[in-house]
């Protein structure tokens, strides 16, 4: 008489109950702008901030956690992401406007904040219409465009740490600098307090149209891309360094340096995450060789390489 083989415990079995949604082996390529990458071992979409805090408090400490937004400035490697990937959903996309103040969830699209400000005749937030992604990501990297950045409009934020504790942060606590903040990388932003000032609706509309036209004329918006690939070195433009190194149009596999804007990498349709990352690293190598400048990735890269791709 043979005994039954012991069942292997899955990651899902080790996780605490939630009110939101837990999904095993969840494809991430569908939620990234590049349209590439492997799956999340488990994807968690919390019902609200309380659900997120309770999950983090009860989760076994050895299980890694990765937070993602709408996948705009993100490259997921082909082997996928181990542990739990957290993606904020509908409850984190609320917006409240009071005079020139906007309280919003970290899952709100940046462009939707710009539109809410426009409807309320609040100026100073127009630049967000040209920033891809969500407010949580914009806080994390002090996102900026067209002469303004998050540190100009943030009054405060709320974040949850890996023990499930909430932290109310004043603007000075965020420690903003060029394309980053000093808040611990594993804290998850859940809310932001933004402030503009009273403006003229027609002027705000005109400014947002100018930004829209500028983006459409200079960026490959209708292709699979991840936005600006590298940070601008101090006093220099990444795109110019890339162009000077002869990388405009450079291609590896299905990944290509945009002909329209050299600081954008695009998936021409058949790229793997390894193609994109290898192309970025080749661009960095050529720029360093040509200009003696080491470009720093602005696109966030997460996960594991697929077996055998060497990325």
State the main characteristics:
7 helices, alpha+beta, 311 residues, 24% helix, Uridine Diphospho-n-acetylenolpyruvylglucosamine Reductase, domain 1, Uridine Diphospho-n-acetylenolpyruvylglucosamine Reductase, domain 2, five-stranded antiparallel sheet, four-stranded mixed sheet, single chain, Uridine Diphospho-n-acetylenolpyruvylglucosamine Reductase, domain 3, 26% strand
Overview of this protein structure:
With 311 residues, this protein is an alpha+beta fold. It contains 7 helices and 19 strands. The strands form 6 sheets. The chain has a 5-stranded antiparallel β-sheet. The chain has a 4-stranded mixed β-sheet with strand order 1-2-5-3, with no helix packed on it. The longest helix has 19 residues, at 273-291.
Give me the number of helical elements: 7
Beta-strand percent range: 25-35%
Given the helix and strand composition, which structural class is it?
alpha+beta
Q: How many strands in all?
A: 19
- The coarse overall form would be globular
Strand numbers in spatial order across the main sheet? 6-7-13-11-12
Strand count, sense and barrel status of the largest sheet are: 5 strands, antiparallel
The level 1 CATH classification of the largest domain is Alpha Beta
Q: What sequence of helices (H) and strands (E) makes up the elements?
A: HEEHEEEEEHEHEEEEEEHEHEEEHE
Rg over C-alpha atoms, rounded to the nearest angstrom: 21 Å
Low-pLDDT residue spans:
none
CATH architecture of the largest domain: 2-Layer Sandwich
Tell me the count of domains. 3
